[in-house]
Amino acid sequence: MGDTASEQPRRVVFDYGEVISRPTRALPRITTALGVDGAALDRVSTAYFAERDAYDRGLGDHEYWSAVGKRLGADVDAALARELTRLDVAG
């Protein structure tokens, strides 16, 4: 058996339930960007996670953030959706 890259085992790691990764720390910044009262962080968290499954399955950025915004009474245009995505990815 040689020592080539094609013989090396390949692995894919999925992190369900934040076993490996930390929970997002972006929610306070997302709350501010949405223009929602900072005291409403729990409401933002609920909206964020309520729509997350569809987003993780391929729902577009703008559609996801619009759905989150709708739950909070906030309008999300394309520019705000891009900013929210940036904040979310930055964690």
Present the secondary structure layout.
Blueprint: H1 27-33, H2 41-50, H3 52-56, H4 61-72, H5 78-90
Mean pLDDT: 87
Q: Beta-strand percentage?
A: under 5%
User: Roughly what percent helix?
Assistant: 40-55%
> What is Rg?
17 Å
Shape: elongated
The major β-sheet equals:
none
Total number of strands:
0
Q: Main attributes?
A:
hydrolase activity, mainly alpha, elongated, 52% helix, hydrolase, Putative hydrolase of the HAD superfamily, 5 helices, 91 residues
Question: Your description of this structure?
Answer:
- With 91 residues, the chain is mostly helical.
- The chain has one domain.
- Helices cover 52% and strands 0% of the residues.
- It is built from five helices and no strands.
- It has helices at residues 27-33, 41-50, 52-56, 61-72, 78-90.
- Helix 1 (27-33) runs antiparallel to helix 5, helix 2 crosses helix 4 (61-72) and helix 4 (61-72) packs across helix 5.
- The radius of gyration is 17 Å and the shape is elongated.
